[in-house]
Amino acid sequence: MNWYLKVVKEHYADFKGRARRKEYWMFVLFQMIFAIVAMILDSVLGLSFSPEIPYGWIYVLFGLATFIPGLAVAVRRLHDIGKSGWWYLIAIIPLIGTIWLLVLLCTDSENGENKWGPNPKGEGNDLVIDQIGRE
Question: Which of 9, 19, 100, 115 has a CA-to-CA distance to 43 between 20 and 30 Å?
């Protein structure tokens, strides 16, 4: 839950920097849980758009409120593996693009610093370790 709140509160529209796999996938997990809860609330409260469609205004408002942080954490995740955020658009290609994006989002971080910042895992940051050893 802390990972989800971190993305929504601290990095709402932050497209710069890097995001670990754990940060991204914990966000996705809680996003799915909250989306299901929103659909259930829509159904129970009678806010569904029609009996055949399980979602309504709560789900739509939730989706609109979390669209930007979801996109931002995905872009930062791509930065973490050394790819531009524009790679997210590969999902436009039916089936193959979505599978390829999933593979990219599951790929481990680049070691050390890349052009989007230091490794959020702290691995490969030998300068920090060397500095600690000198103090």
Answer: 9
pLDDT of residue 13: 92
Helices (H), the chain: 2-5, 21-44, 57-80, 96-106, 126-134
Tell the burial category of 70 from Cβ atoms under 10 Å away from its Cβ (0-12, 13-18, 19+).
middle
Cα separation, 73 vs 111, whole angstroms: 19
Structure tokens belonging to residue 111: 């070691």
Cα–Cα distance between 31 and 55 in angstroms, integer?
A: 15
Residue 9 CB partners (closer than 8 Å, separation 6+): none
Structure tokens at 56: 């309504």
- CA separation for the pair 71, 108 (Å, rounded): 19
Give the pLDDT of residue 135.
54
